[in-house]
Specification:
By secondary structure, the chain is mainly alpha-helical. It has 5 helices and no strands. It has 2 domains: about 1-80, no CATH class; about 80-120. The protein has helices at about 5-10, 15-45, 50-60, 65-75, 80-110.
């Protein structure tokens, strides 16, 4: 976006200056939350055994900074998209497991039938 179009966007309508104030407020809030998250990450790093656990995850292919960020977000209490996605995936796996059980039960029932059916 060019500087001129940015200026026009701020002054069009009733909220040009107000929008700028809201953006500034959100930026300050974001910076404050980032500091809190960084503080939580530092506390996680200092926990006894955390270095060993993080090293184990890194050796398995995980990104250490991403693991720390996810842990800090969990402590911070933000509901994130990855949590919803994980719950959704968990529910899909549970549904798949129920369907496998149903198919297995049907296969066992058919296998126990002494007279094989022809034509079906």
């Amino acid at each position: 976006m060019s500087l001129e179009s940015h200026k026009n966007r701020q002054t069009i309508g009733t909220g040009g200056a107000k929008n700028h104030g809201n953006e500034l407020s959100r930026a300050v809030q974001f910076e404050s939350e980032q500091k809190q998250l960084n503080h939580i990450q530092a506390r996680i790093r200092r926990l006894p055994g955390s270095a060993y656990d993080l090293d184990t995850l890194v050796k398995a292919g995980a990104d250490q900074e991403q693991i720390l960020r996810l842990l800090a977000l969990e402590v911070f209490g933000h509901e994130t998209g990855w949590q919803r996605a994980m719950r959704r995936k968990r529910d899909e796996f549970r549904s798949l497991a129920r369907r496998f059980k149903a198919v297995t039960a049907e296969a066992e029932r058919l296998a126990e039938d002494p007279a094989p059916r022809q034509g079906k």
